Amino acid sequence: MEKTYNPSAIEQKNYQNWEKKGYFKPHGDTSKESFCIMIPPPNVTGSLHMGHAFQDTIMDTIIRYQRMQGKNTLWQHGTDHAGIATQMVVERKLFAETGQTRQELGRETFINKIWEWKEESGGTICKQMRRLGTSVDWDRERFTMDDGLSKAVKKVFVDLYNDDLIYRGKRLVNWDPKLHTAISDLEVESKDEQGFMWYFRYPLADNATTLEGKNYIVVATTRPETMLGDTGVAVNAEDPRYKHLIGKNIVLPFTQRLIPIIADEHADMEKGTGCVKITPAHDFNDYEVGKRNKLPMLNILTFDARIAKEATVFDSNGEVSDVYSAALPIQFQGLTREDARKLVVSELDALGLLEDIKAHALTIPYGDRSAVIIEPMLTDQWYVRVAPLAETATQAVENGDIKFVPQQYENLYKSWMTDIKDWCISRQLWWGHRIPAWYDENGKVYVGHNEEQIRKDNQLDTTVKLTQDEDVLDTWFSSGLWTFSTLGWPEKTLDLKTFHSTDVLVTGFDIIFFWVARMIMMTMHFMKDENGKPQVPFKTIYMTGLIRDENGDKMSKSKGNVLDPLDMIDGIDLESLVTKRCGNMMQPQLAKKIEKQTRKAFAGGIEAHGTDALRFTLAAMASTGRDINWDMNRLEGYRNFCNKFWNASRYVIMSCTDMPCAFNHDADNKQQLSLADRWIQGQLQTTIKEYRHALDTFRFDIAANILYEFIWHQFCGWYLELTKPVLFKGNEAEQRGTRHTLISVLETLLRLAHPIMPFMTEEIWQRLKELTGQGGDTIMLEAFPEVNANLVDKQAVEDLEWLKKVIVAIRNIRGEMDISPKIPLNLLVKNANKDDARRFTENADFLSALAKLESVTMLKNDEKNPICATALVGNLELLIPMAGLIDSKAELTRLNKKLEKTSKDLAKISGKLNNARFVSNAPQAVIDKERGKLAELQSTCEKLEQQINTIKAL
RNA sequence: GCUCGCUUAGCUCAGUGGUAGAGUCCCUGCUCGACAUGCAGGUUGUCACUGGUUCGAACCCAGUAGCGAGCACCA
């Protein structure tokens, strides 16, 4: 074995072997319990980031753990088509390469281009996932635009439409003026910004006046340009200032449009001027006011969010109307929102109609993909009526059929579900599932699986011209069907029966509404068990936090603080890292700053750490639902741990190769177990129990810590050292016993650690197998360790813990007194009880090896002893003669420091025990424990004082 | 404005109502026959603040402050 753990030499070859042999597949024995995880489908054209690495580590750990317990285990992989994101990427690529737009290319050709791109780049993330060791069943990989899934999407749409859960309507939607599509309210990001409030004078018609005798009223707005689409001014019915004006009209500046003053609850007397301009086609609140008051709607914007050449006029039902002139003043036509705003303000000012401008804090909606300001736009869109679906979905969480880990996310889920809005599912894109709706020439809509079926069902002959809806469905509509569509639905497949409901969903809290909630709603509506009860998509939802950078900032390309998991694994030199972070940026002006940051934070580049170390780090930091601030130091620490584990294995293998180890194939099986052998086996059982509990409760951080502590400090720190005297000096039976234990314990540890660190454990296990001659082809399919209570030897545990204390006490003296570890010591012992005496006799070899003792001499209590440095283990006094070794002043300092600390503890505890209320109220066990501690501390204090006095007396 | 989460060693994070923990950093000494990605020893904390409950609070409760997130409002 190599002296230093070298992950690159072992990872890929093992992965390729696993995949080739089909170990990732469910074993298919349905008499065994099944277990299934559906991966949250990454974007098909995406690449792996730290968040994926984190979630994939968690999922793979769970899956490997369950698989090793013999379950029929499926981890289903797949990608989604990521409508907007993918279309954007290909559009940009097309334009860069040919200068063509998608419109110039035409829909069909463009879609073919996207498929080509998908074939080319779709494998990237899968290749990257393989580097992480993910044991997904690659043969079952699915894509949301596959035939099967597309069929499911169509059926769901048609069925929901027939159940009146999908409808089409002219509504105000969130319109993205850059991407030219509607987006759902979840895809809108609100940002707080400083802006202005403009106050305009709106002239009253027919010589009406306000109470003060003014011939205008004042409205306030943050969006002056929308005034071109005003169709009313609302005041509160109770407002004494304006009550008398209700029913009168305003002459809207520029267009001279006559618009009514109406009474509406929306107008708040306390707010602004009390008068609200109403623009139903360009503001969500105004839209509602318009509906209530039957105001016409004037759309004055193009899909680019510029002022149109002429407005489109609708009545309050959305029907085209001629109640108002569509004309828009020429000077505004074609202006952007920003330019139109400036011009409206300056022209109103010129007309003497600008009353005031005030600074104003407001929230601006941005598209999460395009980062441009979203525009409320009046368009025809398809919606899912969500409220009826939400009810069942909420109950599933309330009654515990679905559990959130950590639990507090249930509140978030519930609060969203109770106030849920209809979901706009149509997108004005080309890449996605085309909406299965057709229109005849009168605009009548027909929904069905295909045109042929629709003609048949509606007796439409070929003289009726049908055209399919141009729009596609929101990507989340298809991902919402993920758990069951990937298993073959709507066919009644064996997979569905075996693996649905799935067991655990591992995902980030940021898509709890986008995906998780919608998946629950969709699944429970379409999947029913044999009794007709809605099936949940998964029983447990494990929510991960975000991986942030070392300063707690979100990782993003524009900040240049993104870390690539593969760079953690393989390492990367500084120049490549700088190039990677600064190249291909949306905002190239940031590159300089990012370069500087990067050179500072990663002056030496990034070292290779290997997949197992990365996975171990992620697991160790996965405490429930919290964001993780990434820390390279933790990664390095756990890489060192891998090396430690590797070298411990190396020691075991070197010590046992070609030696009798008491496995079946050995001729002579006689073995004698040492105290250390019995102790480590016992400790291992406790560890298995705690470790399994941690995994069962999704506490991967605790699991990782248990492994770390046991392997490094118990197995390596104590046990391996304790095997050395046996292997070097013991008799044959003792050596066999120790070798047998070394191998057994290591083999168990490998299986224990395998779910978190698959590569290293497999590599070592294969080598260990040659020594044991036992086991199957791969550690992946070995049984996960179970607790064997028979292996716990209480006496051995107590004896060895005593031994550790004695050794540590002597090492303390050495360390603090600066006695070289090379110098052998003669230990004198006082106040030893029967057990102490026995333990000294039984463990002479261990003591000599680990504490470098030359001799141990028991002294009677009253026997005189030379001047010594001393230590205590309980009442047992350990004495190291000082002659020639120890400076008495140093020993005094050391003892005084100990005494000080002990006295402090003593004072605390005696104070407690002197408190009558403590003694009368605390449980007896606690009191006894405190009394025990008190006695011990008292005796320690006394002994320390004695020792101090002895030295002082010199 | 509402809701939720967080605040523990220089840094990144665990933590059970009964004397504060890990990794990393720091200091001292070590080429001890697995490992210098190591070994031995050491230092490090008003557990954000203020009250309350309790014999006893880092832990339970209330409030305050700071940070973060989600939602709402925004004429």
Number of strands: 31
Q: Helicity, in percent?
A: 40-55%
Strand order of the largest sheet: 6-5-16-18
**Mass-distribution shape:** elongated
Low-confidence stretches: none
Largest sheet: 4 strands, antiparallel
**DSSP helical segment count:** 31
Q: What is the SS-derived class? A: alpha/beta
Radius of gyration, CA atoms, in whole angstroms: 38 Å
User: Average pLDDT across residues?
Assistant: 90
Distance between the termini: 56 Å
What labels describe this entry?
elongated; RNA-binding; four-stranded antiparallel sheet; alpha/beta
Please outline what is shown here.
With 954 residues, this protein is α/β, with parallel strands linked by helices. Helix 22 packs across helix 26 and helix 23 (700-729) runs antiparallel to helix 24.
Provide the fold topology:
Elements: H1 7-21, E1 34-38, H2 50-68, E2 72-76, E3 78-79, H3 83-98, H4 102-105, H5 107-121, H6 124-131, E4 142-143, H7 147-162, E5 166-176, E6 181-183, E7 188-203, E8 216-221, E9 232-235, E10 249-251, E11 258-263, E12 276-278, H8 284-292, E13 297-301, E14 307-314, H9 337-350, E15 354-367, E16 375-384, H10 387-398, E17 403-405, H11 409-418, E18 423-424, E19 426-427, E20 437-439, E21 445-447, H12 451-457, E22 467-468, E23 472-473, H13 475-479, H14 482-485, H15 494-499, E24 502-508, H16 512-526, E25 538-544, E26 547-548, H17 565-570, H18 574-582, H19 591-601, H20 611-620, E27 628-629, H21 632-656, H22 675-696, H23 700-729, H24 732-753, H25 758-772, H26 794-817, E28 825-830, H27 834-842, H28 844-850, E29 853-858, E30 868-873, E31 876-881, H29 888-914, H30 916-921, H31 924-952
Parallel strand pairs: 1-2, 3-4, 9-11, 17-25, 24-25, 26-27, 28-29
Antiparallel strand pairs: 5-6, 5-16, 7-8, 7-15, 9-12, 10-11, 13-14, 16-18, 19-23, 20-21, 20-22, 28-31, 30-31
Helix pairs in contact: 1-25, 10-11, 10-16, 18-19, 20-21, 20-23, 21-23, 21-24, 21-25, 22-23, 22-24, 22-26, 23-24, 23-28, 24-25, 29-31
The structure holds one RNA strand of 75 nucleotides.
